[in-house]
Amino acid sequence: MSQEWGSMSQRRKSFGFFSRPTILQELSDSGTNTVPKSLQKSASSDLRVPRSRPKSLLFGAGGFTHELSTTLTIPSPRTKVLTKAPRPKSMFGSFKAKEVGFVTESSGSSSATSSRESHEQDSAEVTNVSAVVLHHGEALSTGGLLRRKKEYLVLTTRELLRYKSQQKAWEQLGMCSINPKTPTTGRSASFSSASDLTMSDNVITLLQQIVAVYMPEMDTNSTTIQVDHVDEVGGPGSTMFQLPTIGDAHIWLDNIREAAAAARDLLDMPPISNNTIAHIARRLEAEKDYAPDQFFRVYTIVQRGSNGKHHRPSSDDLHKMYSTVHIVPIPKTSTNRSAASLLLTGPTTSFGTLTLTTMSMSTMDDSFTLGFRLPCRPEIRLTLASCDVASIIQSIRQISEYLRPEWVIPPYSMDIPEYLKDEPLALEPSVLKDEYNNIDRTIAAYCAAYDLDASCICYGISTDVEDGPQFILYPPLRERRKTYSDLELLAVLRSLRWNEAFGSISFRGISLDPLMKAFDTCGNEYEPYATRQGRPIKVESTDSKRPLLIWELRALALCSTKLRRMGFRDSITRRKKGDFQNSGEEGDGCGIVEAIMPLCRRGYTNVDWFDLTGIELVESDLDWLVDAAASRLAHFRGFELGRCGLTERMVSLFLAALVAHENTLEALDLSGNPARLHAPSLNTSMCYFPYLRKLNLSRVLRTSGLDPLLTAEVLLRWRLQELDLSETQLNSETVDAVSTYLASSQSDALHQLYLTQTGITARDVAIFMHSMSRTAGKARDLHLHIGQNHLHVNHRELVEAIALGLTPSHLTMRMVDYPKEDMFRELLRALKINTTILFLDLSKVSLPYEAGSETCAELGELFAKNTTLVELDLSGEQAVLESARLGGGIIAALGRLAENRTLQSLRIELQTLGTSGALVLSQMLRKNNTLRHLHCDMNRIYLQGFSAMVNALEHNTTMLYLPRMEWDRAEQVKAVKEQFNNANSSANSVANISPPQPIKSSFLYRKSADQPGGKKDRRVSISEQPLRAHAVKSMLRPSMGRQLSTLGEEQGGSPTNDAGSSPYDLLRTLDEKWDAEIMRLDDFLRRNVNLMTGLAVSQVEEEPHYKNNSHPYNPVMITV
Hints:
InterPro entries: LRR-containing (IPR052394), LRR_dom_sf (IPR032675), PH_2nd_LRR (IPR057334)
Protein name: RNI-like protein
Organism: Terfezia boudieri ATCC MYA-4762
Oligomer: single chain
Region (Disordered): 27-51, 106-126, 1045-1064
Number of strands: 38
Domain LRR-containing protein second PH: 276-426
Largest sheet: 17 strands, mixed
C-alpha cells in the first residue's frame, strides 16, 4: 500500500473485499500482540522461476528473533570478463521521491540510522554475524541529495551489509585482510561527498524488512537498482546502488530478491505488527469499508514516481475513485509504540476494483502497474513495486472474478507472466450463491466503484413470464427522483453483462436518455469486440462517436447466450415532435436499433424479441430494422412496435422485409401508429406468417371500404393465443371473419380476445359466444373483453347467450352504459343462472339513476344463488364530471354474500358504502368462510366501520386480504379538520356580529397597538384559533362522534376525557386508534396466511406484528 502525497483526502463507500478475516479477531478484546497463525509468513518465490507462490501475505516488518546457526564462508571468486562499463547518466542518482508501502514520507537519509535505531538492543548480535555470504562487491550508494559514495556490499542470508571499504568488511566479519588479487564486482571513480557518514563501519539492512527491489528508471538496461525497506520504529528507508555494468546490476537484483524471499520464508514473527493492523482497520472503518469476515488482505508496496509517459493522477481524479483497493500510509513512527492517531498520517486513497483497466507486472524486478478509470474520465495509472507483486496481482484477479463471476473476457488488459495466468486462483469464500449469479453483489460493487448509493436502485425478478426469468428495472426508490443517472444505469447494465441467469430484460418506463447523451472518449475497455465464444465482430457504424447506450446494449445482447427478449417500452424520449419525416435529423435514431440490429443481422446474438413500444422511430432506425429483417440469421420471433410513429411506407417496407422470417415470427404489434392501413395489402403481407401467436392491431386506422381488416382465410392460417383489436372499428365483414375463426378448431389455443371499444353491438357479441362455444354448459378457457361497446343494442340476444351458458370462462364488461335500468336487471338475472363464467368484471357500469330496490334484490340473488363465480368486480367510478356507482341499495345485497359458497375474490371499490356498508360486511365476514380477498377501500369507511370489520376477522380464519383503508383514513382526517375549520369560522362570525364593520376575513386578526407591529393585520393559522372540543364534537356527524368518544370503551380502554381535550388531541387519538386497528388487522391476516400454509397456531401467535405497508401476498421487489 502506498499513498501519493500530492493527492487530497479520498472517501468511498464500498465493500471490504481486500480483507483478511483473522487479523484483528482478538485485537479489540486483548492487549497482547499475539497474531493468528493465518498471518504467519509463508514462502514466496522468485519471479524468474515459474513456481507456485504463497496465498498468504508477505510483509517487510520488524526485526528478527532468531539466528542462523551457519558458519560464515566466503565463496571463491568467480571468473569474470572485465569490460568497459558505460559512464552513469548522473553521479547523483535520481532525485525522485519514493513512497514505501504504508509510507508517510520518503527517507532522506541512509538506512543506517533507521536500522541502527530499530535494533539497538541487538547491535552486539548483529556485528557478530553468523550467516552465509551470498554475494559481495563494490557499488556507488546514495540515500538522498549529494549523499553519494562508494561502498562495499556484502549480501548474506539474513541482511545486506554495507562497509566503507573491502578491508573494513573483512575486518568486521572477523576475517584476515583481503587479498588484493581478489576481484570485486566493479570499480567506480571516487569523488568528494558533501557529507560523509559518521557512524560505525557497517550499515545493516535486514532482508525481511525489504519492501521492494527494482530498477528506479524502469529501464532493463539500467545499472542502478533501488532497495526500499521499512521497520516499525525507524520508518521507511530507500537506497540506490549504482553498479559498474548491466550484468552486475542484474546479478545483484536477482540475488537480493532471492535472499529477501528466503528470509521472509524463515521469519517466525507475524508479517506485520498489531499496531499497524489496528491502524489500517481504523482507517478502513473511517471509510466504512472494514469487513474482517470477508476479503481483507494487507500488502506493503512502494508507490514509485511517474516517468511522465502516463497520466499523472490529479487530486480531482483521485477524489472520484472509490472502491475496494485502499492505499493507506503507515502511522508515523515515534518512541511511543502505541497505535498512531488517524490525524498523524496522510489521507487514504481508494480505487474501485471494478474500475481496473490495466494490470502489468515486470518479470525482472518487483515493479508493477495498476490503472483505474471511471466512465468518461481519464485513466489514473499507479506505478508501484512490492515483493508481494505476484500475490497482489492474483488477489486483484480473484476479487474481480468474485464480483463478476460470469465474465468470460475481463474488461482490463493484463501483462503478467504466463505461469501466473495458468495458476489457479484461491477458492472463493463460503458465500451462499443465488440462482441469479449474485446479481445483487455485482450491482452493489459497481455502485461502490462509481460512488453511488446502491439502495436507490430497485429491480425485480419475475419467473411467471415467457422467456423467464425476467429482470425488471423499476423506478428509483426516492420520492423526488423519477429517473436514474448515467452512472446508475451503467452499473445496472454492466452488472447484467455476461449474466446467463435471465432469459429476458425489461426497462419498461425507465428513461435511458442519460446514456444516450453520454460519450466516453477516454477509453474503450468496455466496448465489445468479440462474442462469448471469442468470435470477433465486425459491425459498421454511421458515426465513430457513439453514445454509451449503444455500446452497453450491444454488449448486453452480445455477451449472453440465454437472453432472448429485451423490452424498452417508453424508455427513450424523442427531442423533436411532429411529422415522422421531420422528427429529427437523418441518422439521429433512438440508439437501441443501431446497437442491436447489426448483431442480429450477422447472427451474433440470440435476442430475437424486441419491445419498442412508445419509442418514435426515424428513417435511420427503419434502415437498421429493414437491413436486419432481410437476413435469416436474425431468426426474429417478435416485434412490438406500438406507438412508434410508423407511416404506411414504413409498415409496408418492414412487413416486406419480415417475410424472410416466415417460419420463426410469433408476435407482431403495430398498434397506435399513424399509418392508415389498406386492408387488402395488410392481408397479403400477413398471410406469410403461419406461426403467428400474438397479434395486436389495436388503435389502428384503416382505409374506407367493405373489405375485412383480417379475412377468414388469413385468420385460419394461425393458431393465435392473443388477438387484440381494441379501439379499432370493426365492420360486419370483420365480425363475420372473426366469428368464423372462433368456430374453427384453429382458434382452440386462443386465450385472450380484446374487442374493447370496437363499435360492436350485443348481437355481435352473441354471435361470437355462439361461435366459440364447443359444448353447452362447459366453459371455454378464453378471456373475452367487450367493454365500452354498444351492448344496449339488441341486448336481449346477449342475455340469452349468457343464460344458455355459451360464455367463456372469463368475461370483462367494463364501462358499459345502460340507458335503462331494467336491461341491467335482466343481465343480473341471466348471470344468476349462468354456470360457465368464473371471472366477471362489471366495474364502472353506468345506470341512469342509482340502482333501485328490484335491481339490488337481483344482485343479492346473484350473490346467494350463483354457484360458479370465483372472482367478481363491481367497483364504481368517481370522476370530476361524472360518476358510476350503484347507490346505497347495494349495501343490503352485500348481506347475501353470507350465503355464497364459491366466490373467493370480491372487488367493490368506490361505491360509497360508508360505515353502514362496513357493518354489513363485518356481519358477512363472520358467516362466510370461502371469501379470500375483499377489496373494499375508497368507500368512506371510517374508523368505526373499519374496527367492526377487524373485529369480525377474529372469527374468520379464511380471509387473506383486507385493505388497510389508507384512503378512507385520510378522508376521515380531512373531514375532521374541515369541521374544525367550520366551527372556528362560525365562532368568529358570532363574535363579530355586534360591531357594525365589514368582515375582511374570518381568520383576520388585528394586533393591539401596544404590541410590536400592532397596526398591521396578519392572517392567523388554525392552530392559533381558540376552540373547545365539545363545540366541535357537537357539529360532527353522529357516527363521527361515536368514533371519537366511545371507541376507547369498545376496545376495553378508558373513555376519552372531553373536558380537557383539544381538537388536536382528538386528531392524535384518532391516529392512534387507526394504527392500533391496522396492527390488529395485520395480526389476523398473518394468522390466516400461516394457517393456510400449515403452521401451528402456537407458532403463529409468537410471530411479531407486520410493520411494513405491504400485504403478505404482495409481490416483493428486490432492492440494493
